[in-house]
Amino acid sequence: MKVPALKRLLLGCLVMLLLLGCMMAWYLFPGQSRPVRVDVVVVLAGVDDGRHALGAELVKAGVAENLVISNPAGTEDVVGSSYCRGKRAPVEAAGTWCMNPDPVTTIGEALTFGQLAAEQGWSSVAVVTNRPHTRRVRMMFRECTDLDSEVIHIKGVDWAAFPTQMIHEIGGHLKYRLFDSCVS
């Protein structure tokens, strides 16, 4: 028995919607690490979506004594720059570092941070990012560094930016698996 073209089209659309829904759920619910005592908290570069404040909050709560801010945009990233230059130090005793990843990608952040961690003698890190970025960050820090790493994401989601973020994350996963890996 032949299935009419319209039914095949509808079935194909339904399958695509289910796949899209599964992918969205995968990025929206990546699992959340619990803050545990680590050597350092690193906040990945990005918009002022609360990640810098969360990183500082973790240091204030005693999760780590050191804070690293990935700040490739320098002073153009007003919030990131103010944190990494110590103007918003979470506690006076906290060591604060600015990091300029090379290349300016998540892999670059993992590799550059891995080098800084080796220089400082750090073996554990809590990495702070946004929720859609969590899975890729977790994969790259675990595969590109020798550190015991936990990824902690901000709670909120920028729904207006989410479609673009999802495309970026899918592309980033594919690019990493197909071309980049951890080779610097």
Any chance you could write out the topology, listing elements then pairs?
Layout: H1 5-28, E1 40-43, H2 51-60, E2 66-70, H3 78-84, E3 95-99, H4 106-120, E4 124-129, H5 134-144, E5 148-153, H6 162-180
Parallel strand pairs: 1-2, 1-4, 2-3, 4-5
Number of helices: 6
- Side by side, the strands of the main sheet go 3-2-1-4-5
Q: In CATH, what is the homologous superfamily of the largest domain? A: HUPs
Largest sheet, in brief, is: 5 strands, parallel
The CATH top-level class label of the largest domain:
Alpha Beta
Mean pLDDT: 87
Helix content: 40-55%
The helix/strand series, from N terminus to C terminus, equals HEHEHEHEHEH
Give an account of the 3D structure.
With 184 residues, the protein is an alpha/beta fold. The protein has two domains: 1-30; 32-180, Rossmann fold. Helix content is 47%, strand content 14%. The chain has six helices and five strands. It has helices spanning 5-28, 51-60, 78-84, 106-120, 134-144, 162-180, and strands spanning 40-43, 66-70, 95-99, 124-129, 148-153. Strands 3-2-1-4-5 form a five-stranded parallel sheet, sandwiched between helices. Strand 2, helix 3 and strand 3 (95-99) form a beta-alpha-beta unit.
Give a quick summary of the entry.
This is DUF218 domain-containing protein. With about 180 residues, the protein is of the alpha/beta class.
Which short descriptors sum up this protein?
6 helices, alpha/beta, 184 residues, 14% strand, Rossmann fold, single chain, 2 domains, five-stranded parallel β-sheet, elongated
